[in-house]
Structures are given as C-alpha cells and as structure tokens.
Specification:
- The radius of gyration is 44 Å and the shape is elongated.
- The protein contains 57 helices and 28 strands.
- Helix 47 packs across helix 48 and helix 48 packs parallel to helix 52.
- The protein is α+β, with helices and mostly antiparallel strands.
- It has a six-stranded antiparallel β-sheet with strand order 22-21-23-24-25-28.
- Helix content is 48%, strand content 7%.
Length: 1490
C-alpha cells in the first residue's frame, strides 16, 4: 500500500532505498500464494503501474518525430532520457517487483482478465516508444550524447523483462485469449500512436529511434499465438494495408539507418551513434529488439503485396535511382561515391534476412540455440563462459540451458589452452567442427549477431580458411559464402517467401546483373546476394501464377511492369528488349578533374566512365574508408579506428601532380593514364548510349534476359570464359568463388526448365585474345631489358678495373681461398652475418667491431638444483607445516666446500682450484641471433626513448625482433685454430697423444706478445664482473665461473641430456663461442702465473711442500677451461714459492677444463682439445675412484688392491688399475685411518662392489664433466652433437664423440700416468693429515650428481592450496596476511601488499626475488589464482596455471568454479624460468613504482 510513497522516495533519493526495498519485496512476492492474494485483493498491479507512470510523468517531453516534409503536428509525449529518473534507473525496484509478480501464473491470469489493466500497461509502454530520437546532423558535429545507454536499459528492464514474463504464460491453446487480448489492445494503442504522430507522409529519413517497445509487444504476442498456440495469423493482423505499411516504416527505418551508419552518413553524430548500432545487435538486447523488428517486417510482408514491400524497401534504402539505366542518374540523398553500393547491399541483405530468418517463423528452441551457438563460433573461437554469456536472453533461457551442453558437443570441438605470442596463454576454447562449415554456416544469422563489421568479416575469413584446409576450394579467388537453402516454416508465414516472386524484385535483380556485366562498380557482396536471392526463388513456387501484359518497351523506373509473370523460373529467361528513359539528368560538370580529363580525351569516342571508388570488398558491409572498428568498454567507451591509407595515397598523388604543374607549367599525363587495360576499363556496351548522347536518346536497347546476363557474368568472372554444364553425379565441392555459384545456378536452371537448358546450349564464342601485348607488359619488358643492359655494363667495367689493377685480383683470390679453409665458427659466422641496422657489408674493425645483441642477467637457477636421490619436497599445502625444502641443494653443497677449503688454503687459491660458483651473482648470457656494428649499436641506443625500459642500464630492444637486450658482445676475428702470427693449423691431420703433447709444450717456449684488449671486449667483461664484486681481485675465476654457468644452464635447457634421436647442430642463438673468445683474451692477461701450475699439476704432479689444494680436490671442468684459455707461457714445473692452492685430487675437473681452454696460447685444433679433455678426464676418474675407495671396508680395499695382479693379461681395465694404485698408496697413508666408512651429504651406496658397479659409479660421477666437454667441442668446433644409438647409453655415445673410448677400454695404462696419480695421492695425503673426515667429504662433494631444477610441486586442486594458505597470519603482527603469494621457486609465503603492519617491507615481492632468484621470482597469488612474475624492477601478471573444467581461468576467483592444475601450463612456466626467457615471453612487464 506504500508503493506510491516508495516511488516518491525513489525519485528524491535513489541511492539508498532501492536495495532495501528489493530485499524485502523479493521475499514477500516470491511466495505465489501471498503474491496472488495481494494482486486480487489489493490491486497491486494497478498500484505498481500507476506508481511507475507517476515516476516517469515528470520526465515526459514532446516527441519530435516528423514526416518527410516536416509538416505534421506531433502530439505524442515520450520519456526524456536526460531525466534523473531514467538516467539513474530509479524505476528499477518497482519494475523488479512487477516482473516478480508476473512470474506467477495466478497473478498473470488476473492481469489478462482486466482489459483496463492491459491498457494501463500499454499506455506506459507508449511513453517509451520513440525515446532517444536520433536526428542526422549535417552541419555541426554532435559532441556528446551521454544518455543513449539509459534508453536501452530502460527498454530492456522496464519493457522487455515484463514482456517476456507475460508471454511465458501464453504457450498453450488454453491461454490463446490472453494473447488475443494483448494483441488487440496493442493494436489499438499503436493506432492511437499513429494518430498522435499525425504523419502526413512517410517518416523523415533523417530521423529514427531504436526504441519501439509497444510494436515489439505486438510482434512477440503474435509470434507466440501462431507458433505456440496454433492460431491463424490473418485474424490477428489489422485489416487495412495502410496501417501495416505505416507500421512497417518504423522497424524498416532502423535497418536503413544501420547501413547509413556503416556508410558514414551519420559521422557528424559522433561515436555514440555507432555505439547505439552496436548495442542494438548486442546479445543482451537483440532478442528483444532486432529479432522482433525483423519479425515485424515479416508480418507486414504477410499482409502487404510483395511489389509494395520491395518498392518500399528500395525507396527507404535510397537505391531506386541507382537502378536507373540512365548513365547520368543522380541520387540526391546518396551523394558520395560508394554509398549507393553500401545501401544496395543493405537492401539485399534485409530481403535475405526477412525471407530466410526463422527465429519467429516456427523454429524450435533446439534449432534456435544451435544456430546461435554456430553463429558465435563462426565469428571467433569462444570459451564456455563466453558462449553462455552471449546467448540472447529470452523466456526460454531455462530450457536452453538444459540443451546447451548437448548442442555444444554436437557442433564444436574443444581446443586445449595454447600459448600466445605475447607470452600469455589462450584459454580453453570451443571450435566449430570443420564439417559443419559446409552445412550449417549461415551468413545471415552471423551478420545479425555481428556487433561490428570485423566480426562478420572474421567469419568469412574463417570460412575461407576452413574450405582451403579441407581442399574444397583452391586458388586465390575470393570465396563466396554459401547461403542456407529455404527450410520449413509455419504455414501461416508462407507469404513471406512470396517476396522471391515479386516482379519488382526480378527487375531489380536484372538491373544489378546488367550493371555487374557492363560496369565494374558492383561489389562482390551485392553480386553473391543477388545470386542467393535467385537461388532461393527457385526453391519455392508461387501460390498463384499470374500473367500480365508487358510491352516490348519498359519504362525506366517502373520496375513492376517489366516482367509478365510472378514466377522466377519463367521470368529468368524473359528478354527485356528496350527501356524507355523518362528522366532527364543534369550534366555532370561539377568535378573539375572530370572536366579536365574530358578535354584531354575529346578525340577518344570510347571515353571510359569515371572509375568509381571500390565500395566494398568481398564479405564487407561497406567501404573501407568508413570501416568501423569499435570496442565497447562498460557499454559507454567506444574506440573508433578508420583506415586512411588509401586517402593519404590519393592526396599524395594529387599533390605530386600539382607540384609538377607548378614547376613546369605543363600538365603532363603519364602513359599510365592513357593506356587503359581492357580488364580495368568500364566499357559502355554498344547498344547503350554514351554520356555525351544522353540528351538525344530517349530509349536504350537491352535485348538481354537474366539468364543471358548470368552467362555473361560467368564468362567475366571465370577463367574458362565459357560456361559448361556439369555432368550429373559429378563431385560437388560445396564451396567456391563467383563462377562456381553462378555455374551451379545455371545447372539448376537447366534441370528445372527445358527452355533454359536449350538457351544454355547456344554459347557465344570465346573472345579472341589480342595479339599485341598491352602497355603494362610492354613497359615491364623494356624495364627488364634496361636492367640487364646496366648489369652487363657494370660487369664489363668491373672486369676492366680488375685487369688494370692485377694486385687487387691476386689479393682477392687469396682472400677467397682463405675463406674456403676450415676456420673457427666465429670467424666464418662473421663473414655470413650482417648488421641489422645498416645492412651494409662494412667490414668490422677493432674500433667498430661487429657484435651480437645479448641480454645479460643474474641468475640463481643453479642454486636450486637438488642432488639426485634426495627426497622430493612435499606438495604445497598438503600438510600444516611450511613446505619442506630439499636439504641437499647445489647452494648448500658449495657452501660446505667453501668452508672446508678456506680452512685449509688461501681464499684465492680455493676459488681458483675448486671454483666455488653457483652464487647469486652468477650471470646468464643469451642472444636473439642478430648482430650490430658497435657504432650502429651506440647510435641506436642513444636514439631510443622507451618508457617501459630503463635506458640508464643500457637496455634496448633488438631492432629486428624487438626482444629485450642490455649488452653488446663483440665477435672475435681470431680463431681458436689461429696461431698468434696469423697462420692456422691443419685440423684434418690425425695426431697421436705424444705428438700433441710435444706441440703444446713446445708452444710454451715461444715468446708471445700480449695483444691489447679492445675496449668493446673489456666493457662487456666488466659488465659480467659487475655482480661479482667479491671476486674483483681474482676476476679470472669470475670469468671461468661465467662460462661454466652458461654451459650448465645450456645443459639444463636440454633437460640434462645431450643425446637425441637426430644429430643436433649448433643453435643459431648460442653465444658460448663468442663468450669464450672474449674471456680468453682477458684471461691470458690476468692469470699468467696460474698456467704453470695447471699443466704441471696434470702431467707432472706438484712438488712436496706445496700449500695449494691437491689435484684430487680440484674441479676437472674448470681445469679444462683454464687450460684452453690461458696456456701461453714457457712451462715451469715448480710453482712459485709461497703458493697456497688445493691439491689436484681436490680440484673441480669442470673448472680445470675451462681454465685450460681459456689459457692455452697456440693454434688449438680439435685434436688438441680432445687431448686436454682426455688428460682432465683421467683426473676426474681418479677423483671418483679415490672418493669411492673411502667407502670400502678394509677387506674390500685389500681385495681390489691385489685384484689386477691376480687377473690374467687383457682382463683388466684402466679403471681397475687406477683404483688398485690409489688404494695401494692410501692404504699406507693417512686417508684411510678413519675406522668408519665416510659419511657425507652426498650418499654413494652399493651393496657389492663389482666391476660393473664401480664402472657405473664412475659413469654417474663423471657424466657432468663429459657433458660439459661435449658442449665445448660442440660450440668451439661446430661439430653436431651425436644421435642416440639403440642399446648405447648417453655416456658411451659422448665418449665416442670426444674420442675417449680407448681411455676406458684400453687395458694399458701409461707408466707416466701412474706416476702422476701417485703424485696426486701424495698431495691429497698431506691435506688429509689436517682432517681426514673433511678431506673425504670434499672428495665426495666434488662430483655431486644434480637433477634438473624445477618449481615446487603444486596440489591438483586449488581449493587445497586456498584453504591452507588463506588462513596464514603475519609472523610479525599475527594479523591476517594481506595478498598472500606463494613463491613457486622456494615455497616461501610472502605478502605482495604488506598492509597488515609497518614491520613488513612494502615491496616484499621484489626483495624476495632478489634473495631467492637474483631478481627473478614467480609467485602464485592465493586470493586470485594469478601468476605474478618479477624480473628485476619489473613485474607483470601472467596466465593462471589453475583452470576450470572447460580450460578457462577464474582470475580473482569471481566465477567460483572448481579449479584444477594445468600441467602443460605449469611445465611451460617452469621452462621459461629455467631457460631465462621470461623477458622475451612476458611482454607485459612494467616498472614497479617502489
């Protein structure tokens, strides 16, 4: 009883009351018994409708709808959208209660039982009919129209929602009286509306409104009365044709103005008019607006004569003037070129939509939902939630939801989430099944559901792509869409299809075909729409075939009198002989450029018609210049982009012509302007008068039929030129371009009509091709001849120059000959690459070298490796404890080695010998594979002004691929195989070990002059050393660590395995070789004294009394690298006094290998490299066997010591001999004095120590060294990595690759090598005196076998993770943790937005990234399931790794769907982290504002 006061309060303060009212009323009115009681006894319907009328009364304003002449006096009043009641949706609580009441059947019975109540409702609807009237601006631009969306919301909420509730109760024959009552009242109210408008003629074409709720009520109830309640249609329609024609004008005007907007005719009305056009077709509005408007036109078609409907449509689309054969026809409404073609396309589309749309013509809910889903999938692949959200809202939504899953399985295939180019992932989407494109693709339905032109064009592009993939269409011709055939509709609506037999339509199609054959201004969409209409007309028969008398001469604009029959099959072969021109046109002299061209071609009697601007391409709805690319954000923001390239080209051409005239004073017409190609002309037929003779002619001889025009159009579009009827039973591809569909139509005509078949047998002869070559081809031929002449002239001059300068020829020959020799990959690579900026073959110099675009970044990935065999960490969230991290990581083991070595030896010697790397300052270097000159690089970086990249740190984007980079790596000109004097060593000649050793030691006695390190190389090396401040005084070790880090990471990128099914060439993006060259130059100038120690350590042992780490404690890989880089000085067996370095057996073999590589100063061939690798590998085996012997019992040691002596000759392998020698020495020394077996963090377990088990331990322990050595050979000498062989392990394959097989299989061990082993043992035993246990621990830690690093293991169900971590509290203030995020690298929980207390750092994510990953971190947000990536001072949100059942993300957990872990995404993210490619794949990284 208080609704009247509530509505007054809503008008005054709409912010607070609505929610309170709804919260109460929804509980009261949801009860059907209580709702029925208040409706019957309290007249609640009357109160609500009166309350709404009272609310909108203050917003009523005069309606401004005018007729064509603007002479009517309008008495109608409508709601003003600018009023705050409509703008703020103050009516919503009352409408919500009204809709709730109408959901109850007893309440609806009361509503329909009262005609007065229905009239009250329709009178309310009348105030919303015609709101937000749009008037076309022609002089000034409309700046802003902010309230258009309020009008759409008002119609849907206040008018359409109650309408769908009312009609939902009118589905059976028992309720037919309800429908008839509503139809009758709506018809009367519409008549009153017509009287109030007082129109003296048709509505003004300059005005229209999208909002016709009263008319749509009438249409929807008629649809339900006929389709659901089986009522006859004609009694429901008004009796007078004038009423139906006037009713037709308003929905027709909306369709016309849609295409006017596409044609750019409403451009002065601003973006809001385009937004209204999009909203009209939007999924939330189309079922209540667009679909009912089309049905209204279909109802008018059922009542009116077909010729009247066709003529009205052509007139409202302003295309009747275009259909005139007068060549000087003028269109006073469509003045710009191209607009006529767009409007003609719109008129034909509307005819196809009216004829072939079955939404309200008897289509079942299942068919309707299926067509909606197919239409959406044709435009674009969509997710499950998008499909559900975009289904048009109507009363059958509940039943549609039940059928949705079955239909989706029938029509679509699920496509798993895939990666996008920007680094993110596409969510799981549904794709239309390929076979449905030929049978279910409906261009009309797709166009009706397209909000933008690009959506429909996207559907056509997808159709073309599918047809080409399936082989149903080949070639480059534009594919025409296949329109659906006529399908069964309700018999009451059969008159709709009679439009196809309208004489006026037949005449219009004839004229369009005539223009398509004789001129070139007819777009392909217009042509294939005409062919579609003719094809549809052949699929149905007219109700009654009538014939009228038609003379030989037809009047030009009187289209209804051209054909005698109302049957397409009979009219299509009828010949139109003469057209009488009854209109006089004005002479076209307004175009100065046109007049100029006429004067210049006065003598040319066949002057071509002015070439029109191509209005539309295949599949487009309008001209490109008016291409509407609009995106709606919150239904208000519109992004309009127009393509101006063609316009700019046109004005540039005009400007160039004017410049020539200004400079020369002569108008010069280029040959292209006078040499018209026959295909490019727009010829006037012989029997058609030219433009100059129009005033003298009153008739035009045609002598064509639609059939003959179809044949000519086929010849014009087809390459065959002559139509040939397809044989019966031939394979039909069901897709093609214009000739295919025209030929298919002609075949159908031949089948249906004998007369057509006879006429098709008589074909015009193929036109003879012209003998002379056209002007364009002739110019191309002459240009080619001139080019060849110039090339020959240049070649002769070059030859003459070389003859006059013979010394240049000799030097060039030498240069070419030297290029053919085997050189280092870096040298040959530099000759093949070029600068991507200047692209000039400028040779690189020391001042301006050629270098690679590289990205240098700190890394901590290696520290997260765990020892093989270590227990995996628990799944995140599977227990109440914090995630248990692996205890035996690379970081932990290196820290243990560092503590022990620094206790025994000096810090510098410890780092040099064992290379205690894997720190947070490790550097990873990668390149995109592009190169720049140093000067080009400097100029490019200087010119960049990037907002999202920090230029102070030297960051830039690669000029070619736009990948992030921050450094410049120079390419060295000197090869590893180059002698310091410039000569090269022959790497193809086989050398034995003795010869190689003599060459290496002989090179030590040469006095080499140190080369000056180029500034570019020094700057790059300083950038590498910058993070390693603690190693500044021993930067050579830092450089060795850099090489090893990149080799180890390369191995990780290959998933820890170098052997694959196919040989692996050197990757194009590798920079290891260039890095070694730069480090080699720096290393030789800083570590001169260390070289003596390295080589003597490996071959001679070290003297007694040395205080440096023994050989058995050194890293073999580092030794190899150090030797290759630094060997250049005369060898001295004795080390300098006072040296303090670990013994050989405590050195790291990997680091030793690297040190050797970067140290050697001689021509280093692959044979030298393999010999050095062999020497270091012997040290590796000795270290492993020494560590293994420490685990033996005393009895096992004695047995293995005597085993080689007891075995027959040939049955002992080198490993057994080495093990026997080691045990034989240490059994008398200090290393075995501990009674218990060695216990270390790296467990080596075996029950019985047999030959096989020992060889297996040697293989596992030395595999990392073999892999690193193989990578070095791979990159330094560009030898492909080997392919896997059946039955052969990776270890054996790589041994063969390095030519180390004989070291294991040969039973002979050199006496000198055994003596060196004893020296190594002596060094180690001297260290063991200090601490036996720590020495044994170092031996084991030196060859720890690590697994590939990985992210933490996440639970399969996100709910477990959410429940566990959402309850975590801050460990400082014990409050709820804000924005909890789980680090996927280490498993720690942090707060990305630490606002719970002041003790936590604000940028905790960035700080933890610096500690955990050297600036890189990956977080899983617990509150949103998003992945947050931190890279240095940048961060971004990445795709979620938790998806729902349909492969969709639920960012922010807004949809509440169960989420499960997507293993593919998580694995991809893990690879990005391991491969250091987060910068390249995450394009959304932005600077943090901390």
């Amino acid at each position: 009883m208080h609704y009247s006061r509530i509505c007054m309060s809503l008008v005054r303060s709409p912010e607070v009351i609505p929610d309170r009212v709804v919260h109460i009323s929804v509980q009261v009115l949801s009860n059907e018994i209580l709702a029925t009681h208040v409706v019957k006894n309290c007249q609640l319907f009357h109160i609500m409708i009166l309350s709404i009328q009272e609310m909108v009364r203050s917003s009523l304003t005069d309606c401004k709808i005018k007729d064509e002449y603007g002479t009517n006096v309008n008495f109608h009043q409508v709601v003003s959208c600018s009023n705050h009641v409509i703008r703020n949706h103050s009516y919503w609580p009352i409408i919500s209660d009204l809709t709730n009441l109408m959901s109850h059947k007893p309440c609806v019975d009361v509503f329909f039982a009262s005609p007065d109540l229905i009239r009250m409702w329709t009178s309310l609807l009348l105030t919303f009919t015609g709101i937000n009237l749009n008037e076309r601006e022609r002089e000034q631009h409309l700046e802003f129209a902010p309230h258009y969306y309020a009008a759409f919301t008002a119609e849907v909420e206040a008018c359409a929602a109650p309408m769908w509730q009312l009609v939902s109760h009118c589905k059976t024959s028992e309720t037919i009286e309800f429908s008839k009552m509503m139809i009758s009242v709506c018809a009367e109210e519409i008549q009153d509306w017509f009287d109030a408008l007082n129109l003296n003629s048709a509505p003004s074409p300059m005005q229209f409104s999208f909002h016709l709720p009263l008319l749509r009520h009438l249409a929807l109830f008629i649809s339900f009365a006929v389709n659901k309640q089986s009522h006859v249609l004609q009694p429901l329609l008004p009796n007078t044709d004038g009423y139906m024609l006037q009713l037709m004008m308003f929905p027709l005007q909306i369709q016309v103005c849609l295409y006017e907007i596409f044609a750019g005719m409403w451009i002065r009305n601003g973006l809001q008019i385009k937004a209204q056009a999009m909203t009209y077709s939007q999924c939330h509005f189309c079922s209540s607006m667009l679909d009912l408007d089309i049905f209204l036109l279909q109802l008018c078609t059922c009542k009116l004569k077909s010729d009247v409907v066709i003529t009205t449509i052509l007139e409202r689309y302003h295309v009747l003037d275009y259909l005139s054969l007068n060549p000087r026809h003028t269109n006073t409404f469509l003045k710009k070129e191209g607009q006529e073609m767009v409007m003609l396309e719109g008129a034909l589309y509307l005819l196809l939509a009216v004829i072939n749309t079955r939404i309200h013509l008897g289509m079942s809910n299942y068919e309707l939902l299926k067509s909606e889903v197919i239409a959406m999938l044709c435009m674009k692949d969509k997710t499950h939630s998008q499909l559900l959200d975009q289904i048009p809202e109507r009363s059958e939504v509940l039943s549609i939801s039940d059928m949705f899953e079955d239909i989706l399985k029938e029509v679509a295939d699920f496509k798993d989430p895939t990666q996008l180019s920007g680094g993110n992932f596409r969510q799981g989407q549904y794709v239309l099944k390929p076979e449905l494109w030929t049978s279910e693709f409906d261009p009309i339905m797709v166009q009706m559901r397209s909000m933008q032109r690009k959506d429909y064009q996207g559907a056509l592009d997808n159709y073309t792509a599918i047809m080409k993939q399936s082989g149903k269409h080949t070639g480059s011709d534009v594919l025409w869409p296949a329109y659906q055939p006529l399908k069964d509709i309700n018999q009451e609506f059969k008159p709709v299809q009679q439009l196809l037999h309208s004489r006026t339509l037949h005449a219009a199609l004839f004229l369009v075909l005539h223009k398509a054959v004789n001129v070139k201004d007819v777009s392909e969409p217009v042509m294939y729409q005409c062919i579609a209409l003719i094809s549809l007309a052949l699929q149905c028969q007219p109700n009654d075939i009538t014939q009228v008398e038609v003379g030989d001469t037809c009047n030009d604009m009187e289209l209804s009198d051209w054909f005698p029959y109302n049957n397409m099959l009979k009219n299509i072969s009828y010949t139109i002989k003469t057209i009488e021109l009854t209109r006089k046109e004005k002479t076209d002299s307004s175009n100065p450029f046109r007049a100029l061209l006429k004067d210049l071609h006065a003598e040319n009697s066949t002057f071509p018609v002015e070439p029109p601007v191509q209005a539309a391409f295949a599949g487009n709805l309008g001209p490109d210049v008016d291409d509407i690319h609009m995106e709606m954000a919150d239904n208000d923001d519109i992004d309009d982009e127009e393509d101006d390239e063609e316009e700019e080209e046109f004005f540039d051409a005009i400007q160039n012509a004017m410049d020539i005239i200004e400079m020369t004073g002569v108008i010069e017409i280029p040959p292209e302007a006078t040499a018209y190609d026959e295909e490019a002309k727009a010829p006037i037929p012989i029997n058609q008068p030219s433009a100059t003779d129009t005033a003298k002619c009153t008739s035009v001889d045609i002598n064509e039929s639609m059939l003959s025009l179809l044949v000519k159009l086929y010849s014009k579009l087809s390459t065959d030129k002559v139509y040939k009827r397809q044989a019966t039973g031939s394979t039909d591809p069901k897709a093609g371009s214009g000739p295919y569909y025209i030929g298919k139509l002609l075949d159908r005509l031949a089948e249906l009509s004998k007369e057509c078949a006879d006429r098709l047998q008589v074909q015009p002869k193929k036109r003879q091709e012209e003998d002379n070559v056209d002007a364009v081809s002739e110019r191309k031929r002459k240009a080619l001849e001139r080019q060849q002449h110039l090339l020959a002239k240049f070649a002769s001059q070059q030859k003459q120059f070389l003859e006059e300068n013979p010394q240049i020829s000799v030097e060039s020959a030498k240069q070419v000959e030297s290029f053919s020799m085997e050189t280092d990959p870096i040298s040959s690579l530099e000759e093949q690459i070029e600068c991507v900026i200047c692209t000039q073959p400028i040779p690189a110099s020391e001042d301006n070298p050629l270098g690679a675009v590289v990205l240098v970044q700190t890394t901590n990935v290696l520290n997260h490796r765990s020892v093989v065999g270590d227990a995996l960490e628990h799944e995140a969230g599977c227990s109440n404890d914090v995630i248990r991290k692996p205890t035996k990581t690379s970081h932990v083991i290196n820290q243990q080695k560092k503590v022990i070595l620094t206790q025994f030896f000096k810090e510098e010697s410890s780092y040099f010998a064992a290379s205690l790397g894997c720190s947070s300052s490790d550097v990873h270097i990668q390149t995109c594979g592009h190169f720049l000159h140093l000067q080009c690089h400097a100029n490019y970086v200087k010119s960049l002004r990037l907002s999202r990249h920090n230029l102070k740190q030297g960051e830039y984007l690669c000029p070619m691929c736009r990948q992030l980079a921050n450094s410049f790596l120079p390419c060295s000109k000197q090869s590893l195989q180059d002698d310091p004097d410039g000569s090269q060593v022959d790497s193809t000649r086989e050398l034995d070990d003795h010869r190689i050793r003599q060459q290496i030691e002989g090179s030590f006695r040469k006095d080499f002059k140190l080369n000056i390190l180029p500034d570019s190389v020094r700057n790059f090396l300083m950038q590498i050393l910058k993070p390693k401040e603690f190693l500044e005084r021993i930067n050579g070790v830092a450089l060795i660590n850099t090489v090893r880090t990149n080799l180890e990471l390369d191995l990780i990128n290959r998933n820890g395995c170098l052997v694959s099914k196919q040989p692996c060439p050197v990757p194009k993006r590798s920079c290891v070789g260039m890095l070694l060259h730069g480090i080699r130059a720096q290393y030789q100038s800083t570590l001169r004294s260390k070289l003596q120690e390295l080589w003597g350590l490996l071959l001679k042992g070290t003297p007694d009394g040395s205080d440096s780490p023994p050989a058995l404690l050194r890293n073999p890989v580092n030794l190899l690298l150090q030797l290759i880089v630094s060997i250049r000085l005369p060898l001295s067996i004795r080390r300098p006094d006072g040296s303090d370095s670990p013994p050989a057996l405590l050195r790291n073999p990997v680091n030793l290998l690297l040190q050797l590589i970067v140290s050697i100063r001689l021509p280093l061939s692959i044979h030298h490299f393999q010999y050095i690798a062999k020497v270091v590998w012997r040290l590796t085996c000795t270290q492993i066997l020494t560590a293994l012997s420490c685990r033996f019992t005393q009895e096992e040691r004695l047995a293995w010591k005597e085993k080689p002596e007891r075995m027959v000759s040939g049955g002992v392998c080198p490993v057994e001999k080495i093990l026997s020698s080691v045990i034989g020495y240490f059994i008398r020394g200090k290393l075995y004095q501990e009674s218990a077996c060695m216990k270390t963090d790296v467990e080596i377990t075996s029950t019985v120590w047999t030959r096989g088990s020992i060889l297996n331990e040697v293989e596992q322990g030395s595999l990392n060294f073999i892999q690193i050595a193989s990578l070095l050979q791979h990159y330094l000498y560009r030898v492909d990595l080997p392919a896997s062989k059946e039955g052969e392990s990776e270890f054996d394959t790589l041994l063969n690759y390095l030519k180390l097989t004989n070291v294991v299989r040969n039973d002979n061990v050199e006496a000198g090598h055994l003596a060196t082993i004893l020296k190594w043992c002596t060094e180690l035993d001297n260290v063991a005196i200090r601490s036996v246990s720590q020495t044994q621990q170092l031996l084991a830690l030196n060859h720890a076998n690590y697994s590939v690093p990985h992210l933490i293991h996440l639970p399969h169900d996100f709910s477990k993770l959410f429940q566990h971590y959402s309850k975590q509290k801050c460990n400082l203030c014990y409050a709820a943790l804000k924005s909890p995020a789980l680090c996927l690298v280490c498993g720690n929980l942090i707060s990305l937005n630490a606002t719970c207390c002041k003790l936590r750092p604000k940028n905790e994510g960035g700080l933890h990234a610096g500690v955990c990953g050297s600036g890189t971190a990956i977080y899983l947000s617990i509150d949103s399931s998003n992945i947050m990536i931190y890279r240095g001072n940048r961060s971004c949100t990445w795709s979620s790794v938790y998806l729902d059942h349909y492969g969709e993300e639920d960012r922010g957990l807004k949809r509440g769907k169960p989420l499960i872990l997507n293993e593919a995404r998580y694995s991809f993210l893990e690879n990005l982290w391991r491969n250091h490619t987060l910068d390249h794949n995450c394009k959304g990284l932005i600077m943090n504002l901390y």
